[in-house]
Write a structure and sequence with these properties.
This protein folds into two domains: 153 residues, HAD superfamily/HAD-like (Rossmann fold, 3-Layer(aba) Sandwich), CATH 3.40.50.1000; 101 residues, Hypothetical Protein, Haloacid Dehalogenase-like Hydrolase, Chain: A, domain 2, CATH 3.30.1240. It contains eleven helices and 14 strands. α10 links the parallel β13 and β14. It is globular, with a radius of gyration of 18 Å.
């Protein structure tokens, strides 16, 4: 199979635990592009947080951010897809979070906001490299529909809140655990799989010609959609169950292993 597009998640997939692209992963993806295979990023991050890696890999095709709610052409600056959360739902989410005193961030285009700084805001700043802004009461502040709402809490509490929000918004919003302590809420159509399908259509690339690589539950939709869906070796077993191929972990150049085997060497699955 001649794969024409590789879509790869950032955190715990392309990036090592040091939040950097390894030399092996970088060389493999650059070599793939030299052979004519296009590369894109599919991440839950906001665009500014993903841009250093987009530049490092010389990516010129549109990129998928905010779990698929936002597709941006970083060359022209054109927004190709934008799927915000309806304001009615956003207000209800914020009311629920306020009641339980949860730390929450709302995202508008390429900025994020929270009520007051605490250990979670500092953790997010350290991991993303992007500083948000404390604005006081978020419901009062919010004047436009947000692209994403993120709840950060202790890992053992996240399943409880996920269950609650699924009861409140099941079938109306996407509710995903992207990290053990991250619960993300986005538009019902905002999945990496949907975004990858749209991007493939824009580029004239069939699903059979796409490789998608990820490690978490929010990656399952694109792993299922792509012709070759790949789970990282460090992915949870339920995520691996959706993949056609399981590669090495993010600390073992797992992305490079996929690219070298199936793109650079033309390998096929038996």
């Amino acid at each position: 199979m001649n794969y024409r597009l590789i879509a790869v998640d950032l955190d715990d997939s392309l990036l090592g635990d040091d939040l950097k692209i390894s030399g092996g992963n970088r060389r493999a993806l650059l070599a793939a592009q030299e052979r004519g295979t296009q590369v894109t990023i599919a991440t839950g991050r906001m665009l500014d947080s993903a841009m250093p890696f987009i530049r490092e890999l010389n990516i010129t095709v549109p990129v998928i951010t905010y779990q698929g709610a936002y597709i941006k052409d970083t060359v022209t600056g054109e927004t190709l897809v934008k799927k915000p959360i309806p304001m009615e739902y956003a207000h209800r989410i914020l009311e629920e979070c306020k009641r339980d005193k949860l730390y929450v961030q709302v995202y508008l285009e390429n900025s994020y906001f929270f009520e007051q700084e605490n250990q979670y805001s500092r953790l997010y700043h350290r991991l993303s490299g992007i500083r948000g802004r404390a604005v006081g009461d978020l419901k009062t502040f919010l004047k436009e529909e947000p692209i994403k709402i993120l709840i950060i809490d202790e890992p053992e509490r996240i399943p409880v809140f996920r269950s609650r929000f699924e009861k409140l918004f099941g079938g109306r919003l996407q509710i995903a655990v992207s990290k053990p302590n991250y619960l993300e809420l986005t538009h019902i159509e905002a999945t990496k799989g949907n975004a990858l399908e749209r991007l493939g259509s824009m580029l004239g690339i069939k699903k059979e010609e796409i490789i998608a690589i990820g490690d978490s539950y929010n990656d399952v939709s694109m792993i299922e959609y792509a012709g070759l869906g790949v789970a990282m070796g460090n992915a949870p077993d339920p995520v691996k169950a959706f993949a056609r191929y399981v590669t090495k972990g993010n600390e073992e150049d797992g992305v490079a292993e996929v690219v070298e085997r199936f793109v650079l060497k033309g390998g096929v699955l038996k």
